[in-house]
Specification:
Layout lengths: L6 E3 L5 E3 L7 E7 L8 H12 L4 E7 L11 H12 L4 E2 L12 H9 L11 E4 L5 E5 L5 H13 L3
Helix pairs in contact: 1-4
Family: Belongs to the glutathione peroxidase family.
Protein name: Glutathione peroxidase
GO molecular function, one term: peroxidase activity
Amino acid sequence: MNVHDFSEKAMNGKEISLSDYKGKVLLIVNTASKCGLTPQLEGLEAMYKKLGGANFEILGFPCNQFLRQDPGSDEEILEFCQMNYGVTFQMFSKIKVKGKDASPLYKYLTEQTGGKKVEWNFAKFLIDENGEVVERFSSKMKPEDFEDKVEALVANVK
């Protein structure tokens, strides 16, 4: 089993199989619109513009589990991200990332990184082109703090 075995609903309601991303490095992030870390969307978008394309994608998953910092509808969240941070990477429908109701994808991601629950908004999981979890970055780590690791992984995609 790996990340490519999961499907998630995009904000437009369409179910997307993560197997569509085979051969690409992924950065999976739980986002929030009303969090002190929300400005990380700017850094994520900059990374996406720099590295995105044939070998790299960012997948954003809004979550309202941390102090209800993403209370809006999918449409409101997407509009906020696009208007305020120019987000062009794929955003998915709001999900739960911890607890008994956590999405199967996030249960898998946390199992693969030692079982530690997602601690806050903007936890990041780096996935290689084969769907294997490579590394987890804390909420407080800004995209520019680990961009070199992402870039090195993307450069190794054949």
